[in-house]
Description:
Helix content: 25-40%
CATH architecture of the largest domain: 3-Layer(aba) Sandwich
Strand order of the largest sheet: 1-7-6-5-4-2-3
Bound molecules: ligand P1T
Number of helices: 14
Oligomer: single chain
Largest sheet: 7 strands, mixed
Amino acid sequence: MKHHDLKTFDIATKVIHVGGEPDKETGAIMPPIFQTSTYVQSSPGKHKGYEYTRSHNPTRTRLEKNLAALEGAKYALAMSSGMSVATLMVSALGEGATIICGDDVYGGTYRLFTTILNKTYKFVFVDTTDPKKVEHALKTHDASLLWLETPTNPLLKITDIKKTVALAKKYKCMTMVDNTFMSPIFQNPLDLGADFVMHSMTKYINGHSDVVGGCLMTNQKAWYEKVWYLQNSIGPSQSPFDSWLVLRGIKTLAIRMREHERNAKVIAKYLESHKQVESVVYPGLKSHPQHSIAKKQMKGFGGMITFYLKGGVKESKKFLSTVKLFALAESLGGVESLIEHPGIMTHASIPKKVREEIGIHDNLIRLSVGIEHIDDLIADLDKAFKAIK
Ligand code: P1T
């Protein structure tokens, strides 16, 4: 094969080949799982770049190379969960730092920020889809970091990344984008000016619902080193085996995202025309309030849909326990379709009053549309609608 530069390849090629080079020693096409905790040194302090797996591991290094390439970043860190990425990123800012955070984020992020990290850091929640509100918060607080989730979980609100990052820069505030819902296939926040991007790898990146993991990507060496120092000191480094599973799952990320979106588009339209549905939220629908921003900054609309059922908690519960192909479970982004009730499940840690204020009502249902055959998915939903009629 002629010499080629992996950097110039399309992302669909990168997911398969970056960090996936054949093993130098044996030619094995699949990377070895370096299931080891430590590494032999030839004399004290003399080693091959690997001392202890909490610090570095060759399988994890391969995954980090791949992750960095997908977000066009110089550096990536793979950790044992999305929540550990959030914890270490905030901790890297230093005691007393202020973080401005979107008002609709994953319930676990909200819980982490408002019940644990709030003892050491200050969090200010704003609706980041409104630049005026963001600017007001930046003006009133000396914030170090703006935390954006876009699209948000579960309401799929979209923030204009480029515009909002520019605003934050004006106030010397850095920006982190939680890009979990889009995956690197559909959105690349670093290209839009963000300082950091994170993913819960548990979702689309791994894609097979068999790993919990998180990753952080950045172009800034000093911040990468700060977060790595915390990872090495505190310990939530991704394990060799889970790193390997993600390297395996990630190969089909580009093709999976296409299929997730293809199915989600059909289901969003189906729901929008359904008499038993109050309203549907999907970035690909013209009715989505930030549809034009979505078209501009995203390369696809993704596989997540939320909708408000006509009815209350009773109808929602019946609907959720009638579907069969859509599995009733927390999480998202796997090849199999999932369904859940944010108010009772993923966002239960947010006080009811706060939930209601932002629109997480008792008739809100969230779908993670998988890549099964579309006819089977529609038939499953049909059955549930008939059951609550
Ligand atoms: O579960 P973990 O890998 O720690 O990632 C947390 C996380 C971070 N950011 C976003 C946008 C997320 O959706 C999540 C996890 N979310 C779910 C488990 C869920 O069902 O929404």
